[in-house]
Design brief:
The complex is a heterodimer.
Chain A lengths: L4 H46 L10 H7 L11
Chain B lengths: L1 H10 L13 H28 L3 H31 L9 H22 L4 H14 L2 H11 L9 E2 L2 E2 L3 H42 L1
Helix pairs in contact in B: 1-7, 2-3, 2-5, 2-7, 3-4, 3-5, 3-7, 4-5, 4-6
The chains are: A mainly alpha, B mainly alpha.
Chain lengths: 78, 209
């Protein structure tokens, strides 16, 4: 199989581009897995102290902070 | 990266001797230099691990060597394409530069085999660090091979008289080198952050059980 000089130059740059793209895709997949695991751990941490399921599903971290802790005894109930 | 591509593929003048295929130089050489740098960084982190005993250097050394292996693979592939364009063959065993770089690459590929054959812990970290340090000896040998041996196939662009290219070509090379180094740095930081997060989550999972 013969390639022209221009095709070989394009091939060299395309190989680098594909490698970087594949690397970014792998990192993105890993980040998605870590995000999933973090959500699972949040669930686990919420369920743990009171020994029951959380009152509401995990949402945006900022929103959760604004609403206060999801588990544990309610204030003033002793 | 965009500026580097524009300079390398459009603005830089065509080489009188090699023609358009010389444009592979702007991606092949910066990638090769980055691979050497990553392997060197991995060895430096390994030395720091053995010297100071801090656990974080193990992961940093591993990620640097992983990056080096990726850039090393790219060096071999882009080099093979350039060889096909310039010499008419994909590979030649008669060039010391090529063979020594392949040896260096395979040496660091074996690093992963060693690392994953041992159980996680201080013993694995120390063994991996010692292995990574041995590879350090191969880096200058591979880098200087072309100057030390009678190798007339692989071109020598940087000599004692300076770079053997025009000002625009040299500027293009510098921009490309900067872009590839920046890319390697970003990938290194992202991978390291991912690995650390992974380790932290594993620890947290154990603590919550």
């Amino acid at each position: 199989m013969s390639f022209s000089q221009g095709e070989l130059v394009a091939m060299a740059y395309a190989v680098v581009f594909v490698f970087v793209l594949a690397y970014v895709a792998i990192i993105a997949a890993k980040l998605a897995r870590l995000q999933r695991e973090t959500a699972e751990l949040v669930e686990l941490a919420r369920a743990r102290p009171a020994g029951r399921a959380p009152e509401y599903p995990p949402t945006v971290p900022g929103e959760q902070r604004a609403r206060g802790p999801a588990t544990g005894p309610a204030r003033g109930t002793g | 990266m965009g500026a580097a591509l524009l300079l390398a593929l459009v603005i830089a003048p065509e080489d009188a001797d090699q023609g358009i295929s010389q444009r592979i130089f702007y991606i092949h050489v910066p990638i090769a230099l980055t691979a050497y740098f990553c392997f060197g960084l991995g060895a430096l982190k390994a030395l720091l691990l053995l010297w100071r005993g801090e656990e974080r250097y193990d992961l940093e050394s591993y990620v640097a060597i992983h990056q080096g292996t990726i850039f090393g693979a790219l060096t071999l592939i882009t080099g093979a394409i350039w060889a096909r364009a310039s010499w008419g063959v994909w590979w030649t065993w008669s060039s010391n530069q090529l063979v020594l770089f392949l040896v260096l690459f395979l040496f660091y590929c074996a690093y992963f085999m060693l690392r994953y054959s041992l159980e996680e812990g201080p013993r694995r970290a120390r063994s991996s660090a010692v292995y990574a340090l041995f590879g350090l000896a191969l880096i200058p040998v591979s880098f200087l091979a072309i100057r030390l041996a009678d190798d007339f196939i692989h071109p020598t662009v940087f000599t004692r008289e300076g770079p053997q290219m025009s000002g625009t070509m040299f500027a293009t090379f510098c921009v490309s080198w900067g872009a590839v180094t920046l890319l390697a740095y970003v990938l290194y930081r992202v991978e390291l952050a991912g690995k650390r997060l992974d380790a932290d989550l594993r620890e947290l999972r154990e603590a919550l059980r």
